[in-house]
Amino acid sequence: MNFKNFKDKKVTVMGLGLHGGGAGAAKFFSQIGAKVLVTDLRSKEDLKESLEKLKDLPIKFILGQHRSEDFINSDLVIKNPAVHEKSKYLEIARVNKVPIDTDIGIFFELCEAPIIGVTGTRGKSTTAALIAKMLSRKYSDVVLAGNIRASVLEKLAKINKNTLVVLELSSWQLAGLNNHQKSPHLSIITNIMPDHLNRYETMAEYIEDKKLIFKRQKSKDFLILNYDDKIVRNFARETKSKVLYFTRENGLIEEERGAFIKGQKIFFGREKEAICSIEDIALLGQHNLNNVLAAVSAARLYQVSDKSIKKALSNFKGLEGRLELIAEVNGVKYINDTTATIPEAVLAALNSFPVKQNIILIAGGTDKNLDFHELAENIVKRVKNLILLPGTATDKLEPMLKNQLPIIKAGQMTEAVQEASKLTKAGDVILLSPGCASFGLFRHEFERGEHFNKAVALLKNDQLLISNF
Questions:
Q1: Binding residue ranges for ATP
Q2: What positions does the entry give for ATP binding (predicted)?
Q3: pTM > 0.70
């Protein structure tokens, strides 16, 4: 299918969404002359930010419902990655021989540049951003895109064959490559942990989608794997590409070495000179060392100098909603880790602080069919007070903690932050690290983080008024 010749063709975009993918696809096809119809089950009010991006384009919207005719009388259906493959409307399109694709699938068909793809359950955003930062110190034309609240298609106009493209890719986005015989030239997998088991019937299904990042690689391509993750390490058996391993725990592995830690320094391959010291890294948390090693491995494959890598690491303090220090009020630090949507992410956050650190944890939300037992055990060991937001995961977690530590249930974020602040003294940390999805109380995890930030800002203003009284 030649997407450049889509003038006057009918395109149905299924799922406008809230993170930019649907809006980007709709904008792309509208600008190349297609007749675009966007359909989403959510309301105009829920989708107002995405609709604002498309207000000046001749696009038709069907909101609050899907209609069968929009999947029959169409030349192409573009599905949002969050739409389940078993949707009855997608089946209607298939029965009527209407092609179905995704923005990622289209991007891989049209992108002229080599692609660096990053996936994993945790760390893919940070790793992708770090790689882009490091590459940008050597190359003038680097584009970061993918699962970062914007559509990859909006970046196409800026890309030529000399561009270096870094894509963060979720499992749902990778599923969009199923019908395309393509994988990135360089693929990185940070780790595999249980996630999205409310969407996938089994963990094996989830892993199969992750594998699509390397399944169509060729012998001239590269695959960077986390040696310390047994599931990821074993992917090397299934690829034709050249494999490099990064490792935080296994030192001088005999396999093909990417970046690794020896003592308190980072090395690459068989080189005897260290790239940098761990203390040069600005990112908070031991778990981020894995992301650093993955990024360093990619940067060195592209001949980025040690000096440039070290500079990028010392300047990069992290991304929005990932152990992000929002404020310090009366000696208490307020930290936004809203993108911690699985229990393992909360464990990593807790382990980022000294054992004796007093932590008031704000957690809870919607269940993704995940196991909370290990998290519950660690909350009891590491958390001074727990504030729980409502949701199905909260209902699952709370009985595991009964009578083991002080718990307060809050109906919304402002209440949670206010209650947490009452429990603190100077030197304490209030940590938003939910371990669950945000749906029900919030539209997505970033809105949850925004509510936390606003609640902290209100608290700061109140404290300022009191101090000036």
A1: 120-126
A2: 120-126
A3: yes
